[in-house]
Design a protein that fits this description.
- By secondary structure, this protein is mainly beta.
- It is 11% helix and 57% strand.
- It has an eight-stranded antiparallel beta barrel with strand order 14-15-16-17-18-22-23-25.
- The radius of gyration is 30 Å and the shape is elongated.
Length: 416
């Protein structure tokens, strides 16, 4: 009971942590009216979804505001978003690679994050298929994407169209950069912010940094998760009588994840709690000379489970909001369990109760495999331990083996 309360407090603390991401700020609506108050910064993801919204708190109370209703948003944690007309390519630059090296830009209205402001502004569009970056001169009406595009050659070799480097050289070169320097620039926020900052400084401007910390908004993520897990076990006594059973228990836990490499690769650490307790029995008959012996074996399994997982995960991005993932991890149980086997035998001479055999079950490290799907902040994960996180036990009269497990969890993601 104490362990269950501990995990409930853990989940509550996760929720409270996520709720602390409210910052002072403002937004400007489509009529040009500026409204000041507090913006929930954790809502500033998936800003280009049709039904995307953020919570805004002012003296008039708390309200839900659609991104489609605003032209500008700012928070004091240095996040600024503007809604602009932009020329952009499709969203599939990091998966489902085609063989066309060229990129077609189409006009769209997008909510873009401001990175640098000056005579030329730099913007970012975050998507599950990788970040895209845009520029816009003050005298221009549209933001234009800096093009970076992956494709497959006809002979099946992966190649890259780095047209953004040519754009930087032709449009934003102060005369102090040669081609050898430009080809080293990567399509990342860090490199592009540095480049545009140097360019504006060279033009005797003081660039206004709309973002002071270069970090992917979804680089660090916290999950709260609830689900269920099933462990199977086998027992066999000296009479070669076997008993198979399984134990189900609800699970609760949390997981911390760090994303790398275009938000497709991640490492994670998780903790999950469950209490696998069960009583079961098996009945069988043996023959001794002319006497028939009726046996009853009672198995009492008490396995408190605090599982620690450390693993790697890979994300696949078929759509902007829907993605699939697979992961590989090592896991161990931080607690100890206990198994008691009691036998009773009845025959014509009476009933015989044998002393119970009891043993402590220690934990063991295992390798597990997981897979699942995530839609926005909600995900479903299935994982399978190919071996047991508990040591197999040999009793005086029994052999007890805990087999692999299957676990399903429903998870909610908090973006840090």
């Amino acid at each position: 009971m104490k362990k269950t309360i501990l995990f409930l407090l853990l989940l509550i603390s996760v929720k409270n942590y996520a709720q602390k991401s409210t910052n002072a700020g403002y937004y400007i609506d489509n009529n040009g009216i500026k409204r000041e108050g507090e913006v929930n910064s954790s809502d500033l993801i998936d800003v280009n979804d049709t039904d995307a919204y953020f919570f805004f708190k002012s003296e008039n109370g708390k309200a839900k505001v659609l991104f489609s209703e605003v032209s500008e948003i700012f928070t004091t944690d240095n996040q600024k978003y503007v809604r602009l007309n932009a020329l952009v390519n499709d969203f599939s630059i990091y998966d489902n690679l085609g063989t066309n090296p060229d990129v077609k830009l189409t006009a769209k209205t997008l909510v873009l994050q401001v990175l640098i402001e000056g005579s030329v502004c730099l913007y970012k569009l975050a998507s599950d298929n990788g970040d895209k970056f845009f520029y816009k001169n003050q005298n221009e009406k549209e933001a234009v994407q800096l093009v970076f595009h992956k494709f497959m050659s006809e002979d099946g070799i992966k190649k890259e169209n780095k047209a953004f480097q040519k754009t930087l050289y032709e449009k934003f070169n102060c005369g102090n950069k040669d081609v050898s320097e430009l080809v080293k620039i990567k399509y990342t926020a860090a490199d592009l912010i540095t480049y545009f900052k140097e360019y504006l400084t060279c033009k005797n401007e003081t660039p206004k940094m709309a973002i002071t910390q270069i970090k992917g908004k979804e680089s660090y993520r916290l999950y709260g998760q609830l689900g269920g897990s099933t462990w199977g076990y086998d027992a066999e006594n000296n009479e070669n009588v076997s008993h198979e059973s399984s134990v189900f228990a609800p699970t609760a836990g949390a997981e911390f994840e760090i994303l790398f490499s275009k938000k497709t690769f991640a490492i994670f650490f998780g903790l999950n709690y469950a209490d696998f307790s069960q009583e079961s029995e098996v009945n069988y008959t043996t023959q001794s000379s002319t006497i028939t012996n009726n046996h009853t074996e009672k198995y009492t399994v008490d396995l408190p489970y605090l599982g620690a997982q450390l693993g790697v995960r890979y994300y696949f991005f078929p759509k902007n909001n829907l993605k699939f993932f697979t992961d590989l991890y090592i896991s161990t149980n931080l607690l100890k369990g206990e198994i008691t086997i009691a036998e009773t035998m009845t025959n014509s001479g009476g009933t015989y109760i044998y002393d119970p055999e009891k043993s402590t079950i220690d934990s063991a490290g295992v390798i597990g495999f997981g897979f699942g799907a995530e839609y926005k902040n909600i995900s479903l994960r299935m994982n399978l331990n190919q071996s047991s996180p508990f040591f197999t036990k040999s009793f005086d009269s029994y052999f007890f083996e805990i087999k692999n497990s299957v676990t399903a969890t429903l998870r909610y993601r908090f973006t840090l």
